Amino acid sequence: MAEVRAEMVANVWKVVASEGDHVEDGDTLVILESMKMEIPVLAEDSGTITKMHVSEGDVVQEGDLIAIIG
Amino acid sequence: MFESVLVANRGEIARRVIRTARRVGIRSIAVYSDADADLPYVREADEAVHIGPAQPAGSYLNAAAIIDATRKTSAASVHPGYGFLAENAAFASQVIAAGLTWIGPAPEAIEQMGDKIRARNLMEAAGVPVSPGSREPVVDADAAVAEAARIGYPVMVKAAGGGGGIGMGAAADSDELRAAFETARSRAERFFGSPEILIERYISRARHVEVQILGLASGEVVALGERDCSVQRRHQKVAEETPSPGVSPMLRSAMLAAAVRAGEAVGYRGAGTVECLVDAEAGSFVFLEMNTRLQVEHPVTEMVTGIDLVEQQFLIAAGLKVSFDPAAVAPSGHAIELRVYAEDPVRFLPGPGKITAWSEPSGPGVRVDAGYQLGNTVTPFYDPLLAKLCVHGSSRSEAIARAREAVAAFELVGPKSNLPFHAELLDSPDFVSGDYDTSLVSKLRS
What we know:
The complex is a heterodimer. Chain A is an all-beta fold. In chain A, 0% of the residues lie in helices and 54% in strands. A four-stranded antiparallel β-sheet of chain A has the order 1-8-6-3, with no helix packed on it. Chain B is an alpha+beta fold. In chain B, 34% of the residues lie in helices and 26% in strands. In chain B, the strands form five sheets. In chain B, strands 13-12-9-10-11-14-19-17 form an eight-stranded antiparallel β-sheet. Chain B starts with a strand and ends with a helix. At the A-B interface, loops of A face loops of B.
């Protein structure tokens, strides 16, 4: 099981992958936006997304959980 | 002169405009979002009006809220700063229709220059050199490939209504071009509300050099020297200097003359910037775009000329003469601006946060235009610019030496900061030699 966390304070611009999706290492899960920059959050492992913790428009803090890949 | 100015902006540029307003006796009015209530510019203005939520769409991009704030405060004029609504012709028209003085060029000039394709065509007609590129919007990826075949690779793909490097991408072949086109189009729609794309020949070993112009109330257009903005990451400027070490006196006079022609072609009034790409080896340049507002990096021009550009904007907007003799502008020494961004110095990723230590450098030739102070929180809602650290010296080497000391003396804890990058830049042989181009930052990171 891998936890994907936010690297910085940001807004969630797009949620690309959904719960139940199978993702490969390097696939984009969500796109964050901070300070006019888009920051893709990538899967660091392949597996199935068991939980997506964010929705579009959310504000995440550094270290907040974004998704769990089982 | 008008009695008051509402600054439709935030952070360092709002504070910068308020400082000159105070000096020349104009009442200043700040506007602020939920995120910015504690910033220095809000306190330093004579009055401040809350205009909306942190998200820019509801506040600094909300023309109705800003016009409403001008009514509440009986503001006589509006200074837009840069970014947000500064190059929005519809907003300029609304300000004028409300009976206020717009501190900027006519809405028609903003519109003509805001569309990069129209601007290129206009400049070409005015005898300003342009690189081979689109004369009309490129509608899809197939059309882009056909257009690139005519222009020749490598090409640069851009949003016609864009700016700030957002959505820009270079392509060396048709596969890269298709990818760059799709990226540019989605960014163009999202950030600029227009999907129009243009393609230009990409000059890979080029310097990015711009000319400061002022369109005077009399109709005359004058050029106040150039700024070299070749230190860029993600096509966004990180450091600027004047004069440009890569521009010969002959090239400089050709560029300044072309910039004056560019301004005259649109009947330009106020402060504007003509951006060019310079091929230093060939000694040639092409027009890139014109920014119809005060530029972020305007302080370096102020430091070598001794001219307060914001004061000139006020005077010109009021229909008055500028405070200096346009025929006797004599730049002296060398100036460098370092943009202090809330981002990590290696990957340049944003790093907002609360400022727990902040101490600005000072001393001869040092100027800091900061938007924040100790105790402020840098939020993710706006661009990462914390402060502009500017230095002046009698020579380029003296300016670099002062810049090194100033960077070392700038204490900043809390948000991430690119100050370590600036220390590295000022020690890099390529920067120190002056012989660098827009690939400098990627070379430092390879």
